[in-house]
Design a protein that fits this description.
By secondary structure, the protein is mainly beta. It has two domains: 49 residues, SH3 type barrels (Roll); 195 residues, Fumarylacetoacetate hydrolase, domain 2 (Alpha-Beta Complex). It has three helices and 20 strands. Strands 1, 2, 3, 4, 5, 6, 7, 8, 9, 12, 13, 15 and 18 form a 13-stranded mixed sheet that branches. The radius of gyration is 17 Å and the shape is globular. It starts with a strand and ends with a strand. It binds magnesium ion.
């Protein structure tokens, strides 16, 4: 099932994408994080403004989680997950513009599978972790690459406003360990891999983070990017495509 959040006639709602006809949404009352009931009357997706699929208190991100990406950055493969955070102010919806900050020269895309947390998650073992996951979505870990080495931590390079596009759908029924993932920059495939190549898999990551900090409903976890990173120019269009989940598309403004 694919959930999305949208505004329609000045009201913000969740809905479910019609499985047979992706031009239609079944609105719901309530939210996928609690209880909901379906409305009977469907609406057209072209008539709504798609929003981020949830509000997060934090986006927890894993760095260097594909071997090939660690190699292209000349960094060693980590023995435990490299964890950093993007602030809630970096969130960006499908179709909105990624804005290049004046202080950086090069902004990169990073196609990533994101995990959406369903309920408060703290100190949960791997075997029980799926109960705490609502689903999976597409994300772009936008990075001011030239600023990344200037700071021992990555918050500066990855924390600017608009640097966390994610969505448009939360897919609740996929196997996160075997999904094709790619990025497409101005129509050209730049990254192409599969989540089976993750060094630390999704269940391990969520359990691991839950032993560090409480995860709240709507928090998202970005699981790392494969090789093939590069910069985005003014006016570029960047797409993150994940099998059976959807396509996240944004443009870039300098
Ligand atoms: Mg990343």
């Amino acid at each position: 099932m694919k959930f999305l959040r949208y505004s329609y006639k000045d009201k913000i709602s969740y809905g479910i994408l019609n499985e047979k006809d992706a031009t239609l949404i079944t609105p719901i009352e309530g939210s996928p994080f609690t209880n909901y009931k379906k409305n009977i009357k469907e609406i057209k997706i072209k008539d709504v403004k798609v929003l981020t699929p949830c509000d997060f208190s934090k986006a927890v991100c894993i760095g260097l989680n594909y071997r090939d990406h660690a190699a292209e950055c000349n960094l060693e493969i980590p023995k435990s997950p490299v964890v950093f955070i993007k602030p809630s102010t970096s969130a960006l919806a499908f179709g909105e513009e990624i804005i290049k900050p004046e202080m950086c020269k090069r902004i990169d895309y990073e196609a990533e599978l994101a995990i959406v947390i369903k309920k408060k998650t703290k100190n949960i073992e791997i075997e029980n972790i799926r109960d705490f996951i609502l689903g999976y979505t597409c994300a772009n870990d936008v990075t001011a690459r030239d600023l990344q080495p200037s700071d021992g931590q990555w918050t500066l390079a990855k924390g600017f406003d608009t640097f966390c596009p994610f969505g448009p759908f939360i897919e609740t029924e996929v196997d996160p360990n075997n999904l094709k993932i790619k990025s497409i920059l101005d129509g050209k495939v730049m990254q192409e891999s599969n989540t089976s190549n993750l060094i630390f898999n999704t269940d391990y990551i969520v359990s691991y983070i839950s032993k560090i900090m409480s995860l709240n409903p709507g928090d998202i976890i970005l699981t790392g990017t494969p090789s093939g990173i590069s910069g985005m120019s003014d006016g570029a269009t960047i797409e993150v495509v994940i099998e059976n989940i959807g396509t996240l598309k944004n443009s870039v403004v300098y």
